Amino acid sequence: MRYLEKMKGSTISPPRVSFAEILWSWLGAFLGIGAVSYIHFNLFDGLDSVMLIGSFGASAVLIYGAVKSPLAQPRNFIGGHVLSAIIGVTFYKLFPEQLWLASSLSVATAIAVMHATKTLHPPGGATALIAVIGSAKIHNLGYLYVVLPVGIGALIMLVIALLVNNIPKKRSYPEFWL
Fold it and tell me: pLDDT tens digits for 69-101?
């Protein structure tokens, strides 16, 4: 019975954020995803490459909308994505015919490695999974997936987070680098 009681929760929901916070979060996400998707759809159009991956959408929520969260800090954001990408590609290469196994091993291992390296960034789990279940374009990249789209895309989003999140007086980013 005590086990089920733990599922009730113990605190009230957090307060609403200000309208200004909403606008700055929107602007950062628009510019960050806009930059990466512009490159994806205009500069890479016709090439057998990608720049935009789904996990960047979840990262945008953190680095533009939850700037104080430890999970949104540059170490976590870049490290979580890059380490998870390496892990995802590795497990896809090890088990290309057993995608269920490669999927579960890549996400579970990514979480463990992010914990061990203090780079926990929840969208990193999706980055590892995309390396396994992604399209042929993703698979054809091999370990280049770690550099492009993951590393360079994340760096572009980070630069925009640094620029936009520090414009308002009441907002600052990052809380820490290392």
Answer: 999 999 999 999 999 999 999 999 999 999 999
Domain with 24 in it? 19-165
SS (H, E, C) the chain: CHHHHHHHCCCCCCCCCCHHHHHHHHHHHHHHHHHHHHHHHHHCCCCCCCCCCCHHHHHHHHHHHCCCCHHHCHHHHHHHHHHHHHHHHHHHHHCCCCHHHHHHHHHHHHHHHHHHCCCCCCHHHHHHHHHHHCCHHHHHHCCHHHHHHHHHHHHHHHHHHHHHHCCCCCCCCCCCCC
Q: What is the pLDDT of residues 47-69, one digit of tens each?
A: 767 899 999 999 999 999 999 99
Q: Is residue 72 part of a domain?
A: yes
Let me know if residue 45 belongs to a domain: yes
What is the domain count for the chain? 1
> Does a structural domain hold residue 32?
yes
